[in-house]
Amino acid sequence: MATPASLEDLRVAVIGLGYVGLPLAVEFGRIRDVVGFDINQSRIEALRRGEDTTLETDADELAAAKGLRFSTDPADLAGCNLYIVTVPTPIDEHRRPDLTPLIKASETVGKVLKRGDIVVYESTVYPGATEEDCVPVLERLSGLKYNHDFFCGYSPERINPGDKEHRLPTIRKVTSGSTPEIATLVDSLYATIITAGTYKAETIRVAEAAKVIENTQRDLNIALINELAIIFNRMGIDTEAVLKAAGTKWNFLPFRPGLVGGHCIGVDPYYLTHKAEAMGYHPEVILAGRRINDGMGAYIAGRMVKAMLKRRIQVDGARVLVLGLAFKENCPDLRNTKVIDVVSELRDYGIVADVYDPWVSADEAHHEYGLELIENPEAGCYDGIVLAVAHREFAELGADGIRAFGQPGHILYDLKYSLPAEAADIRL
Known about the structure:
- By secondary structure, the protein is α/β, with parallel strands linked by helices.
- The chain is built from 14 helices and 13 strands.
- The strands form 3 sheets. A 6-stranded parallel sheet has the order 3-2-1-4-5-6, sandwiched between helices. Strands 10-9-11-12-13 form a 5-stranded parallel sheet, with helices on both faces. A two-stranded parallel sheet has the order 7-8.
- It is elongated and about 75 Å long.
């Protein structure tokens, strides 16, 4: 059996420099030599200039990572002996796991894999994916044998985009390895940069399962609150007022209704249900929660249209301003944003929906969704306004500043409870 390098002799490569990979490469780059690899040439060029469009790191942090060098050339990976794969794991249009980026990254690593090397995956997957889907690719491309010539680990990412308080070093890290010795080595490696500590899971499959249920649990809790909001709206009861009252009990969980998008919560449950169905079990509770959350865009648009009709506003041809496109506040990340569902539904009603988001790249919005963002909303011209994302710029405008975009008699719909209850016409 091949012998892996010692902790001191590990030469790290991070494959994929997005929201997850870049902070990881930067932290390791402070204390050791690291190759940061990505296939996006423009991304690499920007990082070399000290620019991070995800805003997860800044120029000073990039400069402090003295050991980090960026590359798009797979040949630069050959000198490494531990590879950390942090590529996206999205779902396709049929809500099935799309492992294409993960398989392609595995192919890239497999071509440079040597005896004694270790491959650690951080991408969110269903239990078993590392050893059932990725390892065969590594074996095929390298001609090496798993757990004899090379080894694997899994350490699920826990990055929270836009969160400047809970950052990579301050979030406890789950680790695992394909043998007890590799598990200890992988855990020791991460312990060098994670100040919050690490947790060594029993197996890779346990670590994979732990990650996928973190967001499945949150998804179901939000689905419950979304369903409650639908019920309370029919009763004419303010949902936020109910949640505040219920929240006076010490063990009431403080979830709020809303659009469930992003790279994790709206995606991860489908990885788990896909695997369950492949094994002959049809998940009911998880998929019920997904149906509720996936349907919130249509529900929100429908409520806006009803409110406009009640105010005798002509819906066909009406103009509605949607404030925010990112999947969460104060963050440029628009992956799997469900605001696009609201926009699409409004347009299906014949409404002209303008979208304004000072955080999001206009080029990225066009590339991902074919959506043209407006640069600045016009004052006094909108029949309806949807406050979809609680960016601080919108909070600073306040209710009066936001309403200034509307015509007399317009509808203001606050999805985020950002404004006082009396300031909005309808709330989620």
